[in-house]
Fold this sequence. Notes:
Layout: E1 10-16, E2 27-32, H1 41-55, E3 60-63, H2 68-80, E4 85-91, H3 97-109, E5 115-119, H4 121-126, H5 129-137, H6 142-153, E6 157-160, E7 166-170, E8 173-177, H7 185-194, H8 207-218, H9 234-243, H10 258-270, H11 276-287, H12 301-308
Parallel strand pairs: 3-4, 3-6, 4-5
Antiparallel strand pairs: 1-2, 7-8
Helix pairs in contact: 1-2, 1-8, 5-6, 10-11
Amino acid sequence: xxxxxxxxxxxxxxxxxxxxxxxxxxxVTELACIDGDPLAPHLEAVNAVKILSKKSSLPLxxxxxxxxHSLVMLExxxxxxVSFDISVLEFSGGFNDGEVAFAKEVLxxxxxxxxxxxxxxxxxxxxxxxxxxxLNYGCxxxxxxxxxxxxxxxxxxxxxxxxxxxxxxxxxxxxxRGVPDENLSCLWRYFEKTGREGVPFFQLATPGLAASFxxxxxxxxxxxxGHLPDTWGRSELMQLYSESGFSMHTQVGKKxxxxxxxxxxxxxxxxxxxxxxxxxxxxxxxxRLQRKHEMVHLRTHDSLDRMLGL
Length: 310
């Protein structure tokens, strides 16, 4: 498995502060040490791909969405000139038709073959299948369970694009954007528990790549450790990727609203509004699995029923 979840020699602890928790409540992750300054991000990304290709005897398999981070990941793999497979996730019912069409257009324009994985998304939630992933891997977000399901459909080494790790300021406090939180850490937990090889956060695939984006950002005279951005929006990320030596991300389509469409659908089915039905049926039960400072790992539906009072 290729990730940073269990470094032998951590060099830095990163504290994520959230506005809705009391002082002292933090999530901590550790990153492995690096030797010297990182290379430019586009070079570190190519090096990361070559390392993954050498270390695994299984086919590398990109989970491609056509989104901003996914395009950067694809560009790194193309520049590394290694063999890899590609899958695109499609929701039955047309909930992500626009996103899938754009992803296919990008891949076909490059002459790349790909596989479409079809997920009956409404049944996935109504049948309770998403609960199985939440219970097994401690996943707090219903949307993230869809990614875990996709991993199960892929042969080889699943690889997922992710946000870069960048310093920022929120409510006057410094924090690290792009570091996996409690919910996204279930992607690491999936590979740990299944024993599979996988890269759930490509932009953090190696210590050098993880550090390279913040190093690139701080080389810009606009920023310094004493003057950090309040937010990292889409335009700021696109600018950073351009300054980091990438180019394919400029093709990125409109932001995905697939889950907004799905929320509207469940509101229609259950007479709700503003996404309340999805939250009540699928998010609230998962949030109840979390205690104040630790995850509750439930193993059976009986345990879940008892917790929810069903």
